[in-house]
Every structure is written in structure tokens, then in C-alpha cells.
Write a structure and sequence with these properties.
The complex is a heterodimer of chains A (about 180) and B (about 90). By secondary structure, chain A is mainly beta. Chain A folds into 2 domains: about 1-35 and about 100-125 and about 160-185, Signal recognition particle alu RNA binding heterodimer, srp9/1; about 40-100 and about 125-155, no CATH class. Chain A has helices spanning about 10-20, 45-50, and strands spanning about 5, 25-35, 55, 65, 70-75, 80, 85, 100-110, 115-120, 125-135, 145-155, 170-175. Chain A is elongated, with a radius of gyration of 21 Å. Chain B has a single domain, classed as 2-Layer Sandwich (Double Stranded RNA Binding Domain), CATH 3.30.160. Chain B contains 2 helices and 5 strands; from the N terminus they run βαββββα. A 5-stranded antiparallel sheet of chain B has the order 1-5-4-3-2, with helices on one face. Classes of the chains: A mainly beta (about 180), B alpha+beta (about 90). The interface between A and B is medium-sized, with 34 and 29 residues.
Chain lengths: ~180, ~90
């Protein structure tokens, strides 16, 4: 079955045309959380990297990223120390510090063809200074457990409404976890 | 009451102008997130007015010209107003 990838504009305009033609169709949606090292701080545009600027340093986009201070990555329960290399420019695909995200996939099928659009929504970083208990599990260089004041990096879940494409109520949207057809995976 | 319609357009108008135009007709920004699609990073802003929703996505990074993607799920008269305002700017 032919499968066509659309950008946001194409996907929405296609649905708009189908609605105008009064065609019957169902929109499928899958929303899944990922934490697979796809997004590291080196590849981020400056506008995004700025959100990490109190704890991370780099010369420019696609340059190596280092810790600017000791900090706790509260989401992954890891502690990094000053000047730790967190994303090497020579290993772009393997960031040590990485950002979790939701992968959102929309598709519909009509006349035997499948049309789909997908996008990733990154978790929002939030940096604070807090008293935290630091354990050996968080970094092998930690010699003993202690409670210290440290920069804390947290990742906040994006709101559910930011994970959707807004469609009129008459469009039937069905959520799914896994498709049998590999084309839809 | 008429049904909501959808439209999605890409315009060569600065994102600030698009957002100001939406705020002028009563839309309020609810949230913003960083998204990634088509190998690019985007700042997606969600504007809401009652049951009507508009998202404005602008590509991040050093490039020109800027052409934010505006996706609208609104009543037909609101869509007409938004598109009219943007046309007037062009």
C-alpha cells in the first residue's frame, strides 16, 4: 500500500479537502514517549540551548558540550561534574546528556493510500538549585552519600494539548499503540 | 452555530506579526513547546480563544526568510478574519 509522508500544512490541508468532499475516513494517532538519545544538547539550535545555559557550555551548534557546574539530572538520576563532556561533536549520535520527548504520529487512509505526519515534542528543561541527596549510583566518582545544595535539571512533561493536531470534532480520531503494517510503524 | 473548519498555511510574515494579529482578535497564548519534524526544530505556540485554536510554528536556527506555519481550527468567520489580517500585512 503506498504511503505518503506529509508536512503539517499538507496533512491538515488534505484533511480539510476530505472534509469538504464529505469523504468518510478515520484519523489514527499514536503518542509515545521516547528517551533514546535522539536529542542531545550539541545539535540544539541556540534558542533551545539557551534554556540550558546556566549548567551547560558550548562554542556553537554542533560543538562539544561541557558541564558549566556540578548538576543533577533528576530525570535520569545522574550527577555530572564541572567540565564533564556531555555531548561530543565527534559522537553526535551518542549524547551522554539527552532530552526525552514524545513522538506523535498521525495518519489516515483513503483510496488505498496512507498519508501520515509525525513530529517530536521535547520535554521542557527546568533548572533550579535545590538540596538533594546524592548517591553513588548517580555517578561512580561519588565516594559517599550526602545531601548537598546543587543545580538540578528537571524535564517537565509537555501539556497534552501541545501533543495534538487540532481537528474539528466531527473528525474521528482513534489512538493506537502498534500497527501491524510495517509501513505504519 | 456553524462548525469549525481547519486550514494550515505557511506565510512569509514574521512570527511576531502573526502573533500580534492573533492577540488583536482575542486569542491568548496558552503554551509553547519545542518540536522537531522534517529534520528541523520548531517553536510551536498555541493560541486559544474559547473553543477556537490556532498554532503558530516557527523554525528555529539561523536561516532566512522566516515562514511560520499557521494551523487554524476555528469558525469560518474567524479563519476569514485571520487570513484577511495576514493578507493585509503582505
Amino acid at each position: 500500500m503506498p504511503s505518503f509522508e506529509c508536512n503539517e500544512t499538507q496533512f491538515i490541508e488534505n484533511i480539510s479537502r476530505l472534509l469538504d468532499s464529505e469523504s468518510r475516513f478515520v484519523v489514527n494517532r499514536r503518542v509515545q514517549i521516547y528517551d533514546d538519545r535522539k536529542y542531545g544538547p550539541s545539535g540544539m539550535p541556540d534558542e533551545v540551548f539557551m534554556q540550558f545555559s546556566s549548567i551547560l557550555a558550548r562554542k556553537g551548534q554542533r560543538s562539544s558540550v561541557y558541564a558549566k557546574t556540578h548538576f543533577l539530572d533528576d530525570y535520569h538520576h545522574k550527577v555530572y561534574f564541572l567540565q564533564d563532556l556531555l555531548h561530543s561533536s565527534s559522537k553526535m549520535k551518542y549524547p551522554i546528556l539527552h532530552i526525552p520527548y514524545f513522538k506523535v504520529e498521525y495518519s489516515f487512509r483513503i483510496f488505498g493510500n496512507s498519508y501520515y505526519h509525525s513530529f517530536d515534542v521535547l520535554f521542557k528543561p527546568k533548572i533550579s538549585i535545590e538540596q538533594k541527596k546524592i548517591t553513588k549510583k548517580m555517578n561512580p566518582r561519588i565516594e559517599e552519600e550526602s545531601s548537598i545544595l546543587i543545580h538540578v535539571l528537571q524535564f517537565e512533561l509537555p501539556q497534552e494539548k501541545m501533543l495534538t493536531i487540532n481537528l474539528p470534532k466531527k473528525v474521528l480520531i482513534l489512538d493506537f499503540k502498534k500497527a501491524n503494517n510495517p509501513l505504519e510503524n | 452555530m456553524s462548525e469549525k473548519k481547519i486550514r494550515s498555511i505557511s506565510v512569509f510574515i514574521p512570527e511576531e506579526v502573526v502573533c500580534a494579529s492573533l492577540e488583536k482578535i482575542g486569542f491568548v497564548q496558552m503554551d509553547d513547546v519545542i518540536t522537531s519534524s522534517d529534520g528541523k526544530f520548531w517553536k510551536k505556540m498555541l493560541y486559544v480563544k474559547d473553543e477556537e485554536v490556532v498554532s503558530v510554528s516557527e523554525e528555529l536556527g539561523d536561516y532566512w526568510p522566516k515562514d511560520p506555519v499557521i494551523s487554524i481550527c476555528c469558525l469560518p468567520r474567524t479563519i476569514k478574519t485571520i487570513l484577511g489580517d495576514l493578507d493585509a500585512f503582505v
